[in-house]
Amino acid sequence: MKILENIEKKIKMTPQRAAILKYLEGNTSHPSAEDIFESVRKKYPMISFTTVYNTLQTLKDLDRVRELNIDDERKRYDPNVNLHHHLICNNCKKIVDIFIDFPLDISEEEAQGYTISCRHVEFYGLCPKCRKTKNKGQGNRNRD
Ligand SMILES: [Zn+2]
Ligand SMILES: [Zn+2]
Predict the structure, then answer these.
(1) Which ligand is located closest to the Cα atom of residue 122?
(2) Is pTM, for the whole model, over 0.85?
Protein backbone atom coordinates (compact mmCIF):
# COMPACT_ATOMS: atom_id res chain seq x y z
CA MET A 1 0.00 0.00 0.00
CA LYS A 2 1.38 3.36 -1.03
CA ILE A 3 1.03 6.15 1.48
CA LEU A 4 -0.96 8.31 -0.95
CA GLU A 5 -3.23 5.57 -2.29
CA ASN A 6 -6.86 6.69 -1.87
CA ILE A 7 -5.77 8.83 1.04
CA GLU A 8 -8.17 11.67 0.12
CA LYS A 9 -11.00 9.32 1.07
CA LYS A 10 -9.47 8.63 4.46
CA ILE A 11 -8.35 12.04 5.70
CA LYS A 12 -9.40 15.61 5.07
CA MET A 13 -6.76 16.96 2.76
CA THR A 14 -5.28 20.40 3.36
CA PRO A 15 -2.24 21.89 1.57
CA GLN A 16 -0.20 21.30 4.75
CA ARG A 17 -1.24 17.69 5.02
CA ALA A 18 -0.54 17.19 1.32
CA ALA A 19 2.96 18.60 1.87
CA ILE A 20 3.56 16.18 4.76
CA LEU A 21 2.41 13.25 2.61
CA LYS A 22 4.57 14.38 -0.29
CA TYR A 23 7.57 14.57 2.02
CA LEU A 24 6.92 11.05 3.29
CA GLU A 25 6.17 9.38 -0.05
CA GLY A 26 9.12 7.15 -0.91
CA ASN A 27 11.22 8.67 1.90
CA THR A 28 13.74 6.15 3.21
CA SER A 29 15.43 8.41 5.79
CA HIS A 30 13.07 7.41 8.65
CA PRO A 31 12.46 11.04 9.66
CA SER A 32 11.28 12.19 13.07
CA ALA A 33 8.25 14.48 13.44
CA GLU A 34 10.77 17.30 13.97
CA ASP A 35 12.51 16.54 10.66
CA ILE A 36 9.19 16.60 8.81
CA PHE A 37 8.15 19.80 10.54
CA GLU A 38 11.45 21.55 9.64
CA SER A 39 11.16 20.55 6.02
CA VAL A 40 7.48 21.33 5.46
CA ARG A 41 7.79 24.62 7.34
CA LYS A 42 10.08 25.96 4.62
CA LYS A 43 7.17 25.97 2.20
CA TYR A 44 4.36 26.45 4.73
CA PRO A 45 5.73 28.72 7.48
CA MET A 46 2.33 28.78 9.22
CA ILE A 47 2.26 25.03 9.82
CA SER A 48 2.31 23.97 13.47
CA PHE A 49 4.18 21.06 14.96
CA THR A 50 0.84 19.76 16.26
CA THR A 51 -0.46 19.49 12.69
CA VAL A 52 2.56 17.38 11.74
CA TYR A 53 2.25 15.25 14.85
CA ASN A 54 -1.51 14.72 14.48
CA THR A 55 -1.19 13.87 10.79
CA LEU A 56 1.42 11.26 11.67
CA GLN A 57 -0.87 9.75 14.30
CA THR A 58 -3.71 9.56 11.76
CA LEU A 59 -1.42 7.94 9.19
CA LYS A 60 -0.25 5.51 11.82
CA ASP A 61 -3.84 4.57 12.68
CA LEU A 62 -4.52 4.01 8.97
CA ASP A 63 -1.38 1.83 8.71
CA ARG A 64 0.16 4.21 6.20
CA VAL A 65 3.26 4.85 8.30
CA ARG A 66 5.08 2.73 10.80
CA GLU A 67 6.18 4.37 14.04
CA LEU A 68 9.65 3.24 15.05
CA ASN A 69 10.74 3.31 18.69
CA ILE A 70 14.36 2.64 17.79
CA ASP A 71 15.83 6.05 18.55
CA ASP A 72 15.40 6.77 22.26
CA GLU A 73 15.40 10.51 21.69
CA ARG A 74 12.69 10.74 19.04
CA LYS A 75 10.13 8.52 17.45
CA ARG A 76 10.93 7.94 13.80
CA TYR A 77 8.47 7.35 10.99
CA ASP A 78 8.67 4.94 8.10
CA PRO A 79 6.30 5.25 5.14
CA ASN A 80 7.30 1.76 4.07
CA VAL A 81 4.91 -0.47 5.99
CA ASN A 82 5.91 -3.64 4.15
CA LEU A 83 7.92 -6.20 6.12
CA HIS A 84 11.52 -5.12 6.41
CA HIS A 85 14.22 -4.70 9.04
CA HIS A 86 16.60 -1.96 10.11
CA LEU A 87 20.28 -1.22 10.47
CA ILE A 88 20.87 1.54 13.03
CA CYS A 89 23.94 3.68 13.65
CA ASN A 90 24.59 3.98 17.39
CA ASN A 91 26.29 7.32 16.89
CA CYS A 92 24.24 9.43 14.45
CA LYS A 93 21.03 7.32 14.65
CA LYS A 94 20.87 6.92 10.89
CA ILE A 95 18.44 4.11 10.06
CA VAL A 96 18.63 2.14 6.84
CA ASP A 97 16.37 -0.58 5.51
CA ILE A 98 17.22 -4.25 5.18
CA PHE A 99 15.04 -6.42 3.01
CA ILE A 100 16.44 -9.85 3.85
CA ASP A 101 13.80 -12.48 4.42
CA PHE A 102 14.73 -13.88 7.83
CA PRO A 103 13.10 -17.08 9.03
CA LEU A 104 11.05 -15.37 11.71
CA ASP A 105 8.28 -17.88 12.17
CA ILE A 106 7.86 -19.05 15.72
CA SER A 107 5.97 -22.06 16.91
CA GLU A 108 2.61 -21.81 18.61
CA GLU A 109 4.30 -22.78 21.84
CA GLU A 110 6.81 -19.94 21.50
CA ALA A 111 4.01 -17.49 20.65
CA GLN A 112 2.42 -18.33 24.03
CA GLY A 113 -1.08 -17.49 22.87
CA TYR A 114 -0.11 -14.18 21.25
CA THR A 115 -1.26 -13.29 17.76
CA ILE A 116 1.81 -11.89 16.02
CA SER A 117 1.17 -8.64 14.15
CA CYS A 118 4.70 -7.42 13.50
CA ARG A 119 8.14 -8.94 13.17
CA HIS A 120 11.13 -6.67 13.18
CA VAL A 121 14.86 -7.24 13.50
CA GLU A 122 17.20 -4.41 14.49
CA PHE A 123 20.96 -4.39 13.82
CA TYR A 124 23.07 -1.83 15.66
CA GLY A 125 26.51 -0.57 14.74
CA LEU A 126 28.38 2.34 13.23
CA CYS A 127 27.58 3.72 9.79
CA PRO A 128 30.51 4.21 7.33
CA LYS A 129 30.54 7.97 7.96
CA CYS A 130 30.75 7.62 11.76
CA ARG A 131 33.35 4.86 11.42
CA LYS A 132 35.56 7.23 9.48
CA THR A 133 35.23 10.03 12.06
CA LYS A 134 35.86 7.63 14.92
CA ASN A 135 39.03 6.29 13.28
CA LYS A 136 40.25 9.82 12.63
CA GLY A 137 39.71 10.72 16.30
CA GLN A 138 41.68 7.71 17.37
CA GLY A 139 44.53 8.60 15.00
CA ASN A 140 44.84 12.06 16.52
CA ARG A 141 44.89 10.65 20.01
CA ASN A 142 47.68 8.27 19.11
CA ARG A 143 49.80 11.08 17.76
CA ASP A 144 49.60 13.14 20.98
ZN1 LIG B 1 26.43 7.21 11.92
ZN1 LIG C 1 12.43 1.23 7.18
Answers:
(1) 2
(2) no
CATH of segment(s) 1-81: 1.10.10.10
93: nearest Cα among 66, 67, 127, 136: 127
Span from the CA of 15 to the centroid of ligand 1 (angstroms): 34
**Distance set, CA 36 to CA 55, 99, 105, 128, 143 (Å):** 11, 24, 35, 25, 42
Q: What residues sit around ligand 1, an ion, with C-beta below 5 angstroms?
A: 89, 91-92, 94, 127, 130
Q: Where in the chain is the domain with CATH 3.30.1490.190?
A: 83-144
Ligand sitting nearest the alpha carbon of 93: 1
Give the list of residues 6+ apart from residue 137 with CB closer than 8 angstroms, or none: none
Distance (angstroms) between ligand 1 centre and the Cα of 90 equals 7
83-144 folds as Dna Ligase; domain 1 (3.30.1490)
Q: Which regions of the chain carry the CATH code 1.10.10.10?
A: 1-81
pLDDT tens column, 28-75? 999 999 999 999 999 999 999 999 999 999 999 999 999 999 888 899
